[in-house]
Design goal:
By secondary structure, this protein is mainly alpha-helical. It has two domains: 39 residues, no CATH class; 80 residues. Helix 3 packs antiparallel against helix 4 and helix 4 packs antiparallel against helix 5. It starts with a helix and ends with a helix.
């Protein structure tokens, strides 16, 4: 939500009126804070009338960063290849991206890595059980042929 210059001026005027009305009752730390405010306002007279300039996003943060791409690749590889190797990498990249402010991608990395690991373990258990049943049936067929 953007605050216009007039709204900032109104907030400043309200704050200054509060300071004038309550100066004698304020603790020392609040008086010091008010003095710092007035010093800042004196040094920046147009700060409350002009909106701050828009900060440009760095070019490297536009689009998907390498760590975001690598996190998704590791999360998918945790399911397809090896959960023991790629799930921790995806989680580490998620933590790295949290530190860089890419929260949505970070949550997706961690969720996909954990979900892929659980799914891979469940599917592996099902496949091992299925292979064991097939092996048991194969042994029975071989014993019947003899």
């Amino acid at each position: 939500m953007a605050t216009t210059g007039s709204a900032l001026e109104q907030q400043a005027a309200t704050y200054e009126q509060y300071l004038r009305d309550n100066w004698d009752r304020m603790p020392a730390w609040e008086q010091e804070q008010a003095q710092q405010y007035f010093a800042w306002k004196g040094a920046n007279p147009r700060a409350l009338t002009e909106p701050p300039p828009m900060l440009a996003r760095p070019a490297h943060d536009q689009g998907l960063h390498w760590s975001v791409k690598a996190g998704y690749i590791c999360a998918v590889a945790a399911f397809l290849l090896s959960p023991l190797i790629f799930a921790p990498l995806a989680i580490l990249l998620g933590i790295y991206n949290i530190a860089r402010g890419r929260y949505v991608h970070s949550i997706a990395h961690v969720f996909l890595a954990v979900a892929g690991t659980i799914l891979a373990i469940v599917l592996s258990a099902i496949m091992l059980d299925w292979l064991q049943v097939l092996q048991h049936q194969l042994v029975e067929l071989q014993s019947q042929q003899r």
